[in-house]
Amino acid sequence: MRCAVVHYHEIALKGKNRPFYVNTLLQNLKRATADLGIENLRKAMGRAILELPEGVPLKTLAERLSTTFGVANFSVGESAPLDLEAIKERVGRAVEEWREAGHLFETFRISTRRSFKQFPLQSPQINHEVGGYLKARTGAGVNLKHPDLTVYIEIVPKEAFFYFDKLPGPGGLPVGVSGRVVSLLSGGIDSPVASYRMLQRGCELIFVHFHGHPFVSKASAEKAEELADTLTRHQYHSLLYLIPFGPIQRQVVLSVESRLRVVLYRRLMVRIAEAMARRHEAAALVTGESLGQVASQSLQNISVIQGAAQLPILRPLVGMDKQEISDQAMRIGTYEISIQPDQDCCQLFIPPHPATRTTLEEVETAERALDLPALVQEGVEGAEQKTFDFPPGVVPAYRSKPPLSS
To answer: Do residues 152 and 163 make contact, with C-beta atoms less than 8 angstroms apart?
Structure first.
């Protein structure tokens, strides 16, 4: 039987919580492959097994597994009965089919992992027995250091698996095990990377985007939709809230001196995002801030902006420079979207010389000129909700918390 063998690493260290992590990973694997005709998915001593029916598109399967957080590596191979002679025969047949498909090799090695210790032969003995059989059957030589082909064998209760390649997964924790957070998603390079890194740590994200329409075009909102859609391939169901921030900014401009406006904008964004977070029982906010990158991201201003929140604000990029962030954006597929030109609210009503060292006292004094609860309510009530699913058209399989809804 053809199958995919999925290994995880960090999950295995979770002690008593490990069943929850593993079961969440299995749910996510099922959702990631829901349109590929894979019906049987099970656990087998520290690994997940996907039984592959005929016709499964292996390239698509590999793409899905390589973007499922919690997966350390995976392989497409076959299963065999837990019997040495059966393992030999099936490995030999598979190697010949491999060669006939154009994968030429002159040397090989066997690498066995015996997780099921009750199997009578130890790993070196299995390597020797299967290696000798394969050498006689194919005429290939053995090279333990630099072989053309490595045959991996795994021994678990009731069955064995073998395969020829190991492909890397994204690592991290399965999405859904670390709770729900709200990500402030701009149309820029940084916030999608911050979102990705929180998904990798097992968080389920709700996206909030602040745009300047109708004072500017809808380009930034359209980019946010494309970015949310791209990131949804990692969590399978997403909500994006598009919040019209231009009218709110205009009220700040009319009431607050110019050098303080950027910090007040950010504090209002935090308050509105926090209101959305409480609506969905989210435990924290996430931003793409990197220390010192722009005026609002000086240490003093970050501290003042943090003062507007009651929930924690997570900043996974705070110690990264722009090149590091851009490099990761390229790797995860968001960079080309982010660099498309737009007119976002961060460029609207921005003074030429914003303050880089505000104090909480002066900002709170400036805010007294504003009806903050009304502005927050305006942002929340004006939010437009967008929904994304991956694979498209597949009904979401929700995890531990209630479905996201408006």
So the answer is: yes
For residue 373, cis peptide bond before it (omega within 30 degrees of 0): no
* Cβ–Cβ under 8 Å, residues 178 and 98: no
Q: Give the angle subtended at the CA of 404 by the CAs of 403 and 406, to the nearest 5°.
A: 130
Beta carbons within 8 Å of 309's beta carbon, 6+ residues apart: 270, 271, 274, 285
Number of neighbouring beta carbons within 10 Å of residue 358: 23
Q: Residue 88: phi, psi to the nearest 5?
A: -55, -50
122: which residues sit within 8 A by CB, 6+ positions away?
114
Return the DSSP state at 320.
-
Distance separating alpha carbons of residues 253 and 276, to the nearest angstrom: 24
SS3 state at 397: coil
| Contact status, residue 163 vs residue 5, Cβ threshold 8 Å | yes
Residue-level pLDDT at 392: 83
Cis geometry, peptide bond prior to residue 391 (ω within 30 degrees of 0): yes
Among residues 161, 123, 130, the alpha carbon closest in space to that of 7 is found at 161
List, edge to edge, every strand of the sheet that includes 204-211.
Answer: 313-314, 284-286, 180-184, 204-211, 237-244, 384-389
Half-sphere exposure of 369 (CA within 13 A, CB side): 14
Whether residue 290 contacts residue 190, with contact meaning beta carbons closer than 8 Å, is answered with yes
Q: Residues with Cβ < 8 Å from 229, sequence gap 6 or more?
A: 238, 388
Residue 165 in tokens: 């390649």
CA distances from 394 to 30, 32, 360 (A): 11, 10, 47
User: What is residue 45's predicted lDDT score, i.e. its pLDDT?
Assistant: 87
Residue with tokens 């154009």: 102
Q: Which two tokens stand for residue 110?
A: 């066997």
Please name which of 332, 333, 396 lies closest in space to residue 32, comparing C-alpha atoms: 396
- How does pLDDT run across 18-60, given as a tens digit for each residue? 889 999 999 999 999 999 999 899 998 889 999 999 999 999 9
pLDDT tens string 342-377: 665 555 556 666 777 889 999 999 999 999 999 999
224 contacts 209 by C-beta, under 8 angstroms: yes
Between 215 and 224, residue with greater pLDDT: 224
Provide the pLDDT confidence category of residue 292 given band limits of 50, 70 and 90. Answer: confident
Cα 354 to the chain's mean position, in Å? 34
Per-residue pLDDT of 126-164, as tens digits, reads 999 999 999 999 999 999 999 999 999 999 999 999 999
